[in-house]
Amino acid sequence: MHFLVLGAGLFVLYALIGSHRSESNASNQIVVTAGRLRSLAETFSRQWNRPPSEDELSGLVRDFVRQEVLAREAVALGLDRDDTIVRRRLAQKMDFLSDDIASAATPTDEELQTYLAAHPERFRVEARFTFDQVFLDRGKRGDRLEADVAKLQAALNAPGAALDLATLGDSRLLETHFEDVGRREVEANFGARFTERLETLPTGRFEWPVESGYGLHLVRVERRTPAHVPMLEAVRDSVVREWSEAKRAETKEAHLQSLMARYHVVIEAGATPLEPDRMAQVR
Fold it and tell me: Are residues 153 and 210 in the same domain?
């Protein structure tokens, strides 16, 4: 009976030691998989625009194994705990995980149209103008200005008039013809007051006076395209990009809120636990 009990005890002890050794061997084993080798080689190729040589690949494997050993030993020693940099990196990796989930979403035409309708100002096309201008310098012309304007305006608006505008004005630095330019460009060149007048002037004839930062101008608006929100097909790429960014932010926030719902935050010095819907107050 004693021998049987002793034998059974030895079998149990051997089994426990064998199990411990097996677990220890497994935890101390570093496997460099075929997928890892491909990843190391692809990373090298993207960086150097060529595949690694055998020696270089061996060096990459040695670096990977070295890093893995040091990382495991650091975790075993608890060096990963209470480390701001490690915590920040882990939080970033969770953000990347949310990004991966969000990037898989593909919008439908209905979703894009709804987004466009909800954010028209983001896609509005600015007003555009085609116009001619003649600058007349009050300082140069003095008392003759009004008479000169009346004479020049009549000549320019005469049927079939084909005058060279560049020779009529008092500035050689200003262009006389502007073809299909955007509102912001006009405002940058002539100022807000000038641009506002362009939006209200009748088309097809020279009008006076139109004031800019330079002074007074005779201006003829040939063509004017008002600001408008384009059709979806005209701005599809921009809408998809904006929708994707908004969806990514929405998905990340929803994921974060689902994780935060598992926790209660307690701020010391007598504060009470905060419910998930009050978490925003401590972020």
Answer: yes
Task: Give pLDDT tens digits for 5-44.
Answer: 555 555 544 555 554 444 445 568 989 999 999 999 999 9
Give the CATH number of the domain where residue 208 resides. 3.10.50.40
Judge contact between 215 and 138, C-beta under 8 A: yes
Regarding whether 274 and 153 lie in a shared domain, the answer is no
Compute the mean pLDDT over every residue in the chain, rounded to the nearest whole number: 85
228: β partners: 125
Is the previous residue joined to 209 through a cis bond, with omega within 30 degrees of 0?
Answer: yes
What is the per-residue burial (b if ≥16 Cβ within 10 Å, else e) of 97-114? ebeeebeeeebeeeebee
Provide the token pair at 88.
């920040």
202 shares its domain with 237 = no
In terms of domains, do 158 and 248 share one? no
Q: Which of 206, 178, 183 is nearest to 194 (CA)?
A: 183
Give me the domain span that covers residue 3.
1-30
Are residue 12 and residue 43 in the same domain, yes or no? no
H helices within the chain, ranges in order?
2-27, 34-48, 54-76, 84-103, 109-118, 138-141, 145-157, 183-190, 192-198, 236-260
Region of residue 231 (left: phi > 0; alpha: psi -120 to 50; beta: else): beta
Same domain, 178 and 96: no
Residues paired with 216 in a beta bridge: 136, 211
CA 49/CA 71 separation, integer angstroms:
29
Tally of structural domains, the chain: 4
Q: Count CB neighbours of 218 within 10 A.
A: 22
Number of H helices, E strands in the chain: 10, 4
Q: Could you give the maximum distance between any two Cα atoms of the chain, in Å?
A: 135
